[in-house]
From TrEMBL:
<protein>
    <submittedName>
        <fullName>AraC family transcriptional regulator</fullName>
    </submittedName>
</protein>
<dbReference type="Pfam" id="PF12833">
    <property type="entry name" value="HTH_18"/>
</dbReference>
<dbReference type="Pfam" id="PF02311">
    <property type="entry name" value="AraC_binding"/>
</dbReference>
<dbReference type="InterPro" id="IPR009057">
    <property type="entry name" value="Homeodomain-like_sf"/>
</dbReference>
<dbReference type="InterPro" id="IPR020449">
    <property type="entry name" value="Tscrpt_reg_AraC-type_HTH"/>
</dbReference>
<dbReference type="InterPro" id="IPR018060">
    <property type="entry name" value="HTH_AraC"/>
</dbReference>
<keyword id="KW-0805">Transcription regulation</keyword>
<dbReference type="InterPro" id="IPR018062">
    <property type="entry name" value="HTH_AraC-typ_CS"/>
</dbReference>
<feature type="domain" description="HTH araC/xylS-type">
    <location>
        <begin position="189"/>
        <end position="291"/>
    </location>
</feature>
<keyword id="KW-0238">DNA-binding</keyword>
<dbReference type="InterPro" id="IPR003313">
    <property type="entry name" value="AraC-bd"/>
</dbReference>
<keyword id="KW-0804">Transcription</keyword>
<dbReference type="InterPro" id="IPR037923">
    <property type="entry name" value="HTH-like"/>
</dbReference>
Length: 296
């Protein structure tokens, strides 16, 4: 897969500052396995050596939707990072992180400052000593980041203010996730979380959900009803949307043909893939590259 990487530096925008939040940088990177991290293309202001670590003058949200790694910060022991983890960085706090060498990882990040950001991240539910937030595979979070990047790439009028609104939306998702994680999970949620992890491990395979329920000592009717109750959609639809989201990223980040993308994502044919993609995502998969190929 061709690596996709964008770093943006935002100019100061008075209208955005009036919202109490100022976007400083934004990016998405797929770091492959068995490669040094950070690599040589990391911006100088954010580059760090593992032995020394770093501290920033801004807040950052880092989301790891795929892969594994490690994180350390002042006063905290090393912590394992799994797929579906948010790392919340505070200004002037020493830290360091890197992906597991044999897995690599995918990362999204946004750096920001401002009075509203400071107010929100000083709420009682947030804590610089608890920077790791587990959200799992959060499609709303990924879609917001994707819209964020597209708006900045196109740089249409008012993109700075739109960027601030999207950052507020991201912070709202993080805030909600922290509040929910502070509540004790029910037994149902624990079971569904475990099965959801299995679905993510087999995302591009045909999954027999009756067999999956049976292997977890569950009745299929109870499993299907509870899955929808906890996640708001059926197991089949969740799996389908997961594959479509992966396909969208492959189209955006690689030079694979649509037929190759369909095959890698477990669809029976390019025709079926294109038809179901259009139905569920409300646009044709071929439009993704057309949008990305437009000059800024």
């Amino acid at each position: 897969m061709k690596l996709f990487r964008k770093y943006f530096t935002f100019p100061t925008d008075t209208s955005a500052e009036n919202l109490g939040i100022n976007v400083l940088n934004l990016g998405h990177n797929i770091h492959p396995s068995n490669k040094p991290y950070p690599d040589g293309q990391h911006p100088d202001d954010y580059y760090f050596e593992w032995e020394k670590g770093r501290s920033l003058k801004e807040y950052q949200i880092i989301y790891i939707p795929k892969g594994e790694g490690y994180f350390e910060s002042s006063g905290l022991p090393p912590q394992k990072i799994d797929a579906g983890t948010i790392i919340l960085l505070y200004p002037d706090v020493w830290h360091r992180f890197r992906p597991e060498e044999n897995t690599g990882w995918e990362e999204y990040w946004v750096g920001f400052s401002g009075a509203y950001a400071k107010y929100l991240l000083e709420q009682e539910c947030f804590n610089a000593q608890k920077p790791i937030i587990k959200v799992g595979f959060n499609t709303e979070f990924l879609e917001t980041f994707s819209r964020f990047i597209k708006i900045v790439e196109v740089r249409e009028e008012s993109y700075l203010k739109l960027s601030s609104f999207l950052l507020i939306q991201l912070l709202g998702i993080v805030y909600t996730s922290v509040l929910l994680s502070n509540q004790k999970k029910s037994r149902k949620e624990d079971i569904i979380d475990q099965i959801r992890n299995e679905i993510h491990q087999k995302w591009n395979s045909n999954i027999d959900f009756e067999q999956l329920a049976q292997s977890n000592n569950l009745g299929y009717v109870w499993f299907r009803k509870t899955f929808k109750e906890v996640l708001g959609t059926s197991p089949n639809q969740y799996h389908l949307l997961l594959k479509l989201r992966k396909a969208e990223l492959l189209i955006q980040d690689s030079h694979l043909t649509l037929a190759e993308v369909a095959y890698q994502c477990g669809f029976e044919s390019e025709f079926y893939f294109s038809r179901i993609f259009k139905k569920k995502m409300n646009y044709n998969p071929s439009e993704i590259r057309k949008r990305n190929s437009k000059p800024e």
